[in-house]
């Protein structure tokens, strides 16, 4: 599998873990333990051989650790206020389907185990950053020169009444959440700022992705 595909998969999977508006920074040791546990759970889920069960397990994992209402508002940013209440509801429903369908477009089976290690954690007033290294191992089979087998990532965690949640992931100083916002802003721009057109385009994208995922699932069961 190409390294860019793997990076996209990691971004999608860990981005869907969660956000919270009212939160505090978890203690560093607690953040480390949580990251180790949830990271292992995610990698174990990747090892499921039945694709239908893997989709179900990943969906359940994402839904358990995600605040999709908040994330949907964050990525659409200022345009949230430009939608009617009906459009806001339609958008949030579409975003949930989008979040649960987009990761299925990436390879989810790995020939060799993927491992990761937690290197450090630093707490600030509002969040705790956990520094980790993901080892691609022998899954990375390319002809690219100087291809790195390991990826350094930073997980930004908060804690609220529901427990510890991931609010951002950084790769090479690039914030995942801001990248998602840029993507949605571009979608609005492509729709010339018309939120009705934007929602129509988004629904077309979601339906197409869901159809592709269903075809992939049916092919795996033949």
Can you tell me about this structure?
This protein has 222 residues and is an alpha+beta fold. It is built from seven helices and five strands, in the order αααααβββββαα. It has a five-stranded antiparallel β-sheet. α4 packs across α5 and α5 runs parallel beside α7. The two termini are 23 Å apart.
> What fraction of the residues are assigned to beta strands by DSSP?
15-25%
- Overall 3D shape: globular
Order of helices and strands: HHHHHEEEEEHH
Main beta sheet: 5 strands, antiparallel
Unreliable parts: 15-22
User: Biggest sheet: strands side by side, in what order?
Assistant: 1-2-3-4-5
State the end-to-end CA separation.
23 Å
Task: Annotate the secondary structure layout.
Layout: H1 3-15, H2 28-46, H3 51-64, H4 68-76, H5 85-102, E1 115-123, E2 128-135, E3 150-160, E4 163-171, E5 174-175, H6 176-190, H7 195-220
Antiparallel strand pairs: 1-2, 2-3, 3-4, 4-5
Helix pairs in contact: 4-5, 5-7
Structure in a nutshell:
This protein is an alpha+beta fold.
Task: Offer a few descriptive terms.
single chain, alpha+beta, 5-stranded antiparallel beta sheet, 5 strands, globular
